[in-house]
Amino acid sequence: MLFNKHQQKIKEQISKAFQEEFQQELSVESMRLEEPPKSDMGDLALPCFPMARILRMAPPKIASRLAEKIPQSDEIEKAVPEGGYLNIFFNKSRFIEMTLKEIQEKKLDYGSVEKEDKETVLIEYSSPNTNKPLHLGHLRNNVLGMAVANLLETTGCKAVKVNLINDRGVHIAKSMLAYDKWGGGETPESSGMKGDHLVGKYYVLFEAKLKEHPALEEEAQEMLHKWENDDAETIALWKKMNGWVYKGFEETYGRMETLFDKWYFESDTYQLGKNIVQEGLEKGIFYKREDGAVEVDLAEHGLDKKVLLRPNGTAVYITQDLGTAKLKYDDYQFSRSFYVVANEQEYHFNVLFKILELLGFQWSKGCVHLSYGMVDLPEGKMKSREGTVVDADDLLNELKELAKTGIRERRDDYQDEELESRAEEIGQGALKYFLLKVNPKNNIRFDPKEAISFEGSTGPYIQYSHARIQSILRKAGEISFDSVNFSSLGNTEEFSLAKQLYNFPEEVRKAALEYNPARVCEAAWHIAKDLSKFYKEHQVLRAETEELKKARLFMIYCTALVLKKTLNLLGITAPDKM
Length: 578
Ligand code: ARG
Hints:
This protein is α/β, with parallel strands linked by helices. It is 55% helix and 11% strand. It has helices spanning 2-22, 52-55, 59-69, 92-106, 136-154, 170-182, 188-191, 195-212, 215-228, 232-256, 266-282, 317-332, 346-358, 392-410, 416-436, 448-452, 459-476, 492-514, 518-537, 546-569, and strands at residues 44-47, 76-82, 85-90, 119-124, 157-165, 262-265, 287-288, 294-297, 305-309, 336-342, 367-372, 375-376, 444-445. It has a 5-stranded parallel sheet, sandwiched between helices. The protein binds arginine.
């Protein structure tokens, strides 16, 4: 990577100077360079404190003697001692040249790592239930799952994206029962409702009716029992209603470009889970209670007892998870398996991973719960369908409308069709960026108005920064960047922008390591901010000379590539016009 190569060269030059001045070795491997606290103190600093003991010399003395020995080079403009530090100043125009040429060569692969032997990682996310439509929590889950998968993929993994559908259980039976009783045969077509919303309506209806008719609970259990016994009519209804739900989900996923390589269904995996529980029972890892329930005692591991099969032999939530976990491994032999699930399920995953370990599955060590915080709306911001949860489709529509208003305030030359598609892109950019710019661990208060703003650290601002460059490049017309003269570049703003571009691959690496897309948002924001400072101070199309104009055009062209890459990683589109 550019970052590593460049730092390596600087270290080699310092090491050589050290050898010459002190006749002692300072190995490149052991050398640690720091970023100075202020940019006017240089670009990198070598702390001289660790060498003081070996050389029997005060650190400031070491720094100043070393400074005199370091010659100018393609990498280093000057080395200046300050206290116990040796401050290194980059050769600015060569630095810009090196960075931009690397971006030009790599294009959208800038910041990506190519590996021969790719590690397979599995990433399960979204994972909704089929009794209601997707809500605001799923939106955070979906964008987080996509972004983390992109980050892992870009840093050299093969990321398999998986959805696990909870399509069975008493809550599913409830919406089925309500539909059976009061549905009057309506369908998504006859009602004009999206299938998942239609089914969700009956789930809400069930809960409402239950208040007056408590016996309904019993009926729902009976329906589940029938389902488990393969009752033909019940299965037919289940298939029909789930089919509606999948169509609805797919529409929302398609709209958001949420992608999956594989869908797992709990109705398939709960049997596998039951088999695993049976095996664990035979091996004595689990035990049967007097009432017939199968349980595991995790007290030694700092966890509680956990029921794995009910007294009547039916499966619980964790039963299917045992089966699904193993099936995932059998299917993909992953080295890591991620579960993007809200932090309210932390305990569940501690228990699940512990049980898998006790069962002797070596791969359980690679299981990771990617836990994330809550998301809600400020009071009164938006009425949701049922008044309790915020519906995903409603929110997407609301953002699109806000984006339209935003666009209309800025320009009036859009045709209807263009306005529609641009508003969709901006609305989603706003949503995704807002949900991703916060560390996954933290809670979010989602404010649609703030998210859609064209200023500040927002999706639309990053999209706009990219589109603005495209517009300048269009105005510049056909240009070739074959022979750019870089010697004219190097003022404060150009250098600062180039440094953000240079740091980008390192930020991507860290983001992937921490499973934290917020780092990518931050990198994008720094780039966009420095770009805007650069525009404010300097002319591009009306630069003083043709040479300078070309060099600056090249600079913004490369910046646009990196901005597009950041947006791609976040699952956001980068329109060429805004
Ligand atoms: N369907 C579950 C829910 O809505 C989430 C599933 C999470 N994934 C898992 N493997 N347990 O709460």
